[in-house]
C-alpha cells in the first residue's frame, strides 16, 4: 500500500493534519493509529475525566522515581485511539500568553511562531460560544465554550470575586493573548459532553475517497533509504507489513514520536546502544528537553457548607499571576492557582478525610518550569517500557516559584471573600510554614498537569532535532507535527497551541 502522505497517530494534531491535507482530492492520505475507536460513554462525561484513566484507551505510562518529588513516580495518561489525548484530557482550552510564543520565536528565529502569526490558526480551529471577534473564531471545527454564571459553580464565582478583592483583574477569558487575571476556564464541551478532536476534524471527512484511517495499527519502525523515509513497519491484521509513502508526518505525540524514532535507530548512539538498537542516524536531541507542568494537589479546605457537584469538569478556573505583583495584567505568567469543585489531593494524602461535597481544593503550580528531563527506550520493541524522566523540580527557579504559588493559593484560600466557604485548611495545614516545610509538602503534593512537551523540539540550532519548518533534521521527507516540537511550554494547558501549530503547518504545506 502506497500513500502520498502517511500520518502516524490520529490524535489531536494528527486529526487536524489529516483533515487539512486530505482537503486536496489529488493527495492520497493515510492515517495510522495504534488505538481502536473509543465508545465508552463515560469518556463523554466531563466531570469523570480524572476517573477514566488506565482504561484500554490510555497508554498509561509511568515516570521513573523522581528525586524532586520525594522519590515518587507519577502516572502519565496518554490517549490511544482516534482523538488521542483529547479522549482523556481535561478539556480546558487556553492558548497561552504572547510572551510564551516570543520564546518559540527566540528558539526558532522564525516569526511564524509568534502570537500574531499564530492567531489566524487559533481562530481557524475554533467555534467560540461568544462569537467571532478580533481574537475568536466562530466557524472552526472545535467548539470552545466559555461558561457563564448559570453553569459555573457558586464556589468558583466566589473564588473569582476573592481574587478581585485582592487586586487581581477579571479578564474576559484566557484566549486573548494575555492570561494574567481571573476568569472561568474555556472548555471544549458541547451540549454537556466532551468533544474530541477526532469528532470534529477527522470523523466528518472520513468519507473522502483519498483519506484512509487504519486503527489498531502499531507503527514499530520507520524504514530509511538514504536520507529519506521510504515507509513504516507496522503490524496490520496480525501480520507485519511495510507501508510506503512519499511523505511521512509524525503525529504520535511527545512520548510516541521519540520512542518510534529511537526504535528506528534515530537518536543518541549511547541511548540506542544501551537499548540494543543500532544507530542509523545520529540525532542527540531526540527525547531530550522533556518538560511538563506540575500542580500542587493541593491546598485542601474543609468547607463550612455543602459544595454542590460541578456542572462542568471539576477544575473550573485557573488564575494566572505574575510574581511582579497581583495587579500586573500583561506579560508572562509565572504561577497559577486553580479552583477545583471538590476535594483533590495527591496519592500521598489518602487519609485527608474530606469527602466529595465537604471540601474543595486550590491547585497551584509553575507556568514556565526550567527543569528539563528526558525520554529513552529500554529495548527495541514497542512493548518495551519507556524510561520517562521529567526531572521535576530540579531547578531552584522551579522550587522557589512553586513555594510562591503555594503562598498565593493560601492567600486567596484564606481571604475574607472565601470566609463563608472555609471551615479549615486541611492541607498543607498548620504544620507547614517554613521554606523547608513548604518544599517537603510540595514534593509530596505535586501531580502532573499532563502537558509533556519538547521531546523533539523545533529550533534554529543544529542541535534541535526539528527545524522551524517542522522537518526532522537529516531526513528530507519526514515532518513532526504535535506537542513534541514545542520548544518551551506555554503558561497554561497546551492543547490549543498544539491545534494551532498543526493548523499553521497544514496552511503552508505545499500544494
Ligand atoms: C489526562 C490529561 C489531561 C489533559 N488536560 C488538558 C487540558 O485540560 N487542556 C489542554 O490544553 N491539554 C490537556 N492535556 C494535554 C493535551 O491533551 C495534549 O497535549 C495533546 O492532546 C497532545 O496532542 P498530540 O497530537 O501531541 O498527541 P496525542 O493527542 O496524544 O496523539 C498521539 C496519537 O498517536 C498515537 N500513537 C502513538 N504511538 C503510536 C504508534 N507507534 N503507532 C500508531 N499510533 C501511535 C496515539 O495512540 C495517539 O492517538 C491533557 C492530557 C492528558 C493526558
Automatic annotation (TrEMBL):
Its cofactor is FAD. FAD binds at residue 219. Pfam families: GMC_oxred_C (PF05199), GMC_oxred_N (PF00732). The keyword Flavoprotein applies. Residues 369-502 form the Glucose-methanol-choline oxidoreductase C-terminal domain. InterPro entries: FAD/NAD-bd_sf, GMC_OxRdtase, GMC_OxRdtase_N, GMC_OxRtase_C. Keywords: FAD, Flavoprotein. GO terms for molecular function: flavin adenine dinucleotide binding; oxidoreductase activity, acting on CH-OH group of donors. Belongs to the GMC oxidoreductase family. PANTHER family: CHOLINE DEHYDROGENASE, MITOCHONDRIAL, GLUCOSE-METHANOL-CHOLINE GMC OXIDOREDUCTASE. This is Pyridoxine 4-oxidase. It comes from Cnuibacter physcomitrellae.
Amino acid at each position: 500500500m502506497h500513500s502520498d502522505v502517511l500520518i502516524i497517530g490520529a490524535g489531536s494534531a494528527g486529526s487536524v493534519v489529516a483533515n487539512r491535507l486530505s482537503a486536496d482530492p489529488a493527495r492520497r492520505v493515510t492515517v495510522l493509529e495504534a488505538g481502536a475507536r473509543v465508545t465508552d460513554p463515560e469518556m463523554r462525561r466531563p466531570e469523570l475525566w480524572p476517573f477514566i484513566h488506565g482504561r484500554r484507551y490510555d497508554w498509561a505510562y509511568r515516570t521513573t522515581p523522581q528525586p524532586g518529588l520525594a522519590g515518587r513516580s507519577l502516572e502519565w495518561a496518554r490517549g490511544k485511539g482516534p482523538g488521542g489525548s483529547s479522549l482523556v484530557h481535561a478539556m480546558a482550552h487556553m492558548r497561552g500568553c504572547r510572551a510564551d510564543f516570543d520564546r518559540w520565536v527566540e528558539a526558532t528565529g522564525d516569526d511564524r511562531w509568534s502570537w500574531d502569526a499564530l492567531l489566524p490558526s487559533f481562530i481557524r480551529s475554533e467555534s467560540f460560544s461568544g462569537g467571532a471577534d478580533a481574537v475568536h473564531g466562530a466557524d472552526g471545527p472545535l467548539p470552545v465554550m466559555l461558561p457563564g454564571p448559570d453553569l459555573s459553580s457558586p464556589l468558583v464565582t466566589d473564588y473569582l470575586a476573592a481574587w478581585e478583592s485582592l487586586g487581581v483583574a477579571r479578564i474576559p477569558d484566557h484566549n486573548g493573548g494575555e492570561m494574567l487575571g481571573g476568569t472561568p476556564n474555556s472548555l471544549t464541551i458541547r451540549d454537556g459532553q466532551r468533544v474530541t478532536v477526532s469528532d470534529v476534524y477527522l470523523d466528518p471527512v472520513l468519507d473522502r475517497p483519498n483519506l484512509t484511517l487504519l486503527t489498531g495499527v502499531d507503527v514499530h519502525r520507520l524504514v530509511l533509504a538514504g536520507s529519506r523515509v521510504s515507509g513504516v513497519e507496522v503490524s496490520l491484521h496480525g501480520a507485519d507489513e511495510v507501508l510506503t509513502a512519499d511523505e511521512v508526518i509524525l503525529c504520535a505525540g511527545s512520548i510516541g514520536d521519540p520512542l518510534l524514532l529511537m526504535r528506528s535507530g534515530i537518536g543518541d548512539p549511547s541511548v540506542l546502544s544501551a537499548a540494543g538498537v543500532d544507530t542509523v542516524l545520529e540525532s542527540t536531541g531526540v527525547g531530550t528537553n522533556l518538560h511538563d507542568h506540575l500542580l500542587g494537589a493541593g491546598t485542601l479546605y474543609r468547607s463550612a457548607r455543602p459544595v454542590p457537584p460541578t456542572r462542568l469538569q471539576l477544575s473550573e478556573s485557573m488564575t494566572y499571576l505574575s510574581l511582579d505583583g497581583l495587579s500586573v495584567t500583561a506579560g508572562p505568567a509565572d504561577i497559577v492557582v486553580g479552583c477545583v469543585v471538590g476535594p483533590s489531593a495527591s496519592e500521598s494524602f489518602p487519609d485527608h478525610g474530606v469527602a466529595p461535597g465537604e471540601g474543595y481544593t486550590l491547585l497551584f503550580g509553575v507556568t514556565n518550569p526550567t527543569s528539563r528531563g528526558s525520554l529513552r527506550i529500554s529495548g527495541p520493541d514497542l512493548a518495551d517500557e519507556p524510561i520517562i524522566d521529567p526531572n521535576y523540580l530540579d531547578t531552584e527557579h522551579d522550587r522557589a516559584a512553586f513555594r510562591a504559588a503555594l503562598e498565593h493559593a493560601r492567600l486567596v484560600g484564606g481571604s475574607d471573600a472565601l470566609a463563608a466557604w472555609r471551615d479549615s485548611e486541611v492541607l498543607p495545614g498548620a504544620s507547614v510554614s517554613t521554606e523547608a516545610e513548604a518544599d517537603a509538602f510540595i514534593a509530596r503534593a505535586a501531580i502532573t498537569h499532563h502537558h509533556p512537551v519538547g521531546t523533539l523540539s523545533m529550533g534554529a540550532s543544529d542541535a534541535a532535532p526539528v527545524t522551524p519548518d517542522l522537518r526532522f533534521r537529516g531526513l528530507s521527507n519526514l515532518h513532526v507535527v504535535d506537542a513534541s516540537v514545542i520548544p518551551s511550554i506555554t503558561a497554561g494547558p497546551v492543547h490549543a497551541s498544539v491545534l494551532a501549530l498543526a493548523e499553521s503547518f497544514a496552511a503552508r504545506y505545499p500544494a
